[in-house]
Design a protein that fits this description.
165 residues; alpha/beta
Length: 165
Amino acid sequence: MPGQVYALDTNVLAEAARRYYAFDIAPVFWSSLMQCASDGRVLSIDPVHDEIRQYKDELRDWAKQHFAPWFMSTDDDDVVAHYADVAKWVQAQDQFTDAARAAFLDGADGWLVASALAGSYVVVTQEVEDLRARKRVPIPNVCRAFGVACSDTFQMLRELGVCWT
């Protein structure tokens, strides 16, 4: 697999679809994602797909019809072992409320970090590190604790060399 691989958080796709890269105004963003995925440079995970399936919108349809092959399974011994480590770390962080810890572990976020650890991926999220957060567990905080590289959408696009001219 050539170069760095980027693992997408739900919010990368949801914010793009609903805001700055809506399907009707920026179809090239979506085709670029699929091309990068075909090249082995971009993927996501089944729990992200599960979150997207709950939407009743164009993103759900796009994910099902176009991106489904690139939602990787988290049913892998290495991913599960890393998830246990991530869960243990999150539970030990008393800075976060019980509800924040539960929300992090009940959704795709913990699995995304675990998958990145197992596959040496860069996590791509629109969340930002917040060392004072209490009511949510920011993905970048967990990435930092585990030495996982973290990026936002725009940094990923630059690093992938995606340019729309």
